[in-house]
Design brief:
Layout: E1 2-4, H1 6-16, E2 36-37, H2 43-49, E3 67-71, E4 77-81, H3 85-91, H4 97-102, H5 108-112, H6 118-132, E5 137-138, H7 139-149, E6 155-158, E7 163-166, H8 168-177, E8 180-182, E9 190-193, H9 206-220, H10 225-232, E10 247-252, E11 255-260, H11 264-268, E12 276-279, H12 291-294, H13 298-304, E13 312-316, E14 319-329, E15 332-339, H14 345-361, E16 366-371
Parallel strand pairs: 1-10, 15-16
Antiparallel strand pairs: 2-4, 3-4, 5-9, 6-7, 8-9, 10-11, 12-13, 13-14, 14-15
Length: about 375
């Protein structure tokens, strides 16, 4: 078994995440192989700014016809390459009913209570969404119309909305199967039919799921089957039929993990992570499931991953060395940086340069930086 240190793993991941900025074309970023999550304001564009050598602006993703925003992994909104959509949709077909139910995450109990196999529930909802969404519609309008098409058991009373509507996670998981995308940069959320949408497919493809798992292990490895399942949004056991072959066992400070064998050389000899980056909340790097590898110190981990209102993370020479927040006022974006330990003057200066890049990516003409 190959044995490596935690620092070696972080150096490898930083390179695989494209954080050395070797790609000029934003869409060429390796992160697009899995999709770029956009669950919070400007998360995706800031994550891209941390990775792309080219200029990143508020419209970089919105105006690029090569990418599309959809609900995909775990039902979370991600930007994906349009050319990857067919393969992506296939990979999101549950392998069996147990997998389908596990993917319902926090709403497993409600979907299980329908008494209908979870796969059938999913694809019934997908057919209803496909029938309803013929033009851009608000999420609320789609939800109301789809609810009328479905059995009562597929819906719930929502106190905030003061209405009965389709289960939220069910809707998110079914939408792409229904040939529907999200309109980028729209609030409230707006759904629209995919251009040239393909027919509904329901046949599981373990090879397609396996490629997603391999992609996760490539970018966020070495990692465990449970880590990969967390990214997919299913149970660990559900991934067993799709667990990739040709993996190498790797001991990371005594923890048994796996990495695609083709990546072993890159893990053994990663480039020095001598960079400073501002990673936004929910950045793909900090979204890795093994958070104790990223930040072993529990007190610091609590600062990086807050239950409510998570800040961005300050990456310095391969370690998450602090957090940052912003507040916009007019044309100015104010950054507050908090370092866990005193930083070198050169690192602080580099962080402030990154703040300028992040401000530009969000469309602000001016900024200020305060070190707390």
């Amino acid at each position: 078994m190959l044995e490596v240190s935690r620092k070696q793993v972080l150096a490898y991941r930083i390179a695989r995440h494209g954080l050395h900025r070797t790609e000029q074309d934003p869409v060429a970023s390796p992160q697009f192989d899995l999709g770029l999550q956009d669950s919070m304001r400007d998360t995706a564009v800031l994550a891209l700014a941390a990775r792309s050598a080219g200029e990143v602006t508020p419209t970089t993703l919105v105006d690029d016809p090569r990418v599309v925003l959809v609900w995909s992994h775990r039902g979370a909104p991600h930007f994906h390459r349009r050319d990857d959509l067919r393969e992506l949709t296939t990979s999101l077909i549950p392998l069996d009913d147990a997998d389908a139910l596990a993917r319902m995450l926090w709403q497993k109990k409600e979907i299980g209570a329908t008494g209908v196999p979870a796969s059938e529930v999913l694809f019934t909802a997908a057919k209803a969404i496909r029938k309803v969404v013929k033009e851009p519609m608000s999420k609320g309008a789609v939800s109301a119309a789809v609810t009328r098409e479905l059995p009562e058991a597929y819906s719930r009373w929502c106190r905030p909305c003061n209405a009965t509507h389709i289960q939220e996670q069910l809707m998110r998981l079914a939408t792409l199967h229904g040939g529907v995308r999200l309109e980028a940069d729209q609030s409230p959320a707006t759904l629209a039919p995919l251009e040239g949408r393909a027919r509904l497919r329901t046949t599981p493809d373990a090879a397609a799921v396996s490629r997603v798992v391999r992609g996760y292990l490539t970018v966020n490895g070495p990692a465990t089957q449970g880590d990969a399942a967390g990214f997919v949004g299913t149970a660990k056991t559900a991934l067993t039929p799709a667990w990739p072959e040709d993996l190498t066992e790797v001991s990371v400070d005594g923890r048994k993990t796996f990495l695609p064998t083709a990546e072993v050389s890159a893990l053994e000899n990663p480039p020095a992570p001598s960079i400073v980056r501002l990673l936004p909340p929910l950045d793909p790097f900090t979204q890795a499931r093994d958070k104790t590898v990223l930040v072993p110190d529990k007190a610091r981990a609590k600062e990086v991953w807050k239950i409510l209102g998570s800040p961005g993370a300050l990456l310095v020479d391969g370690e998450l060395m602090g957090v940052w927040r912003t507040r916009g006022s007019g044309k100015r974006l104010a950054f507050t940086m908090t370092a866990f330990d005193p930083l070198r003057a050169t690192d602080r200066a580099a962080a402030e340069e990154e703040a300028e890049r992040a401000a530009k990516a969000r469309g602000y003409a001016d900024l200020s930086v305060t070190w707390a």
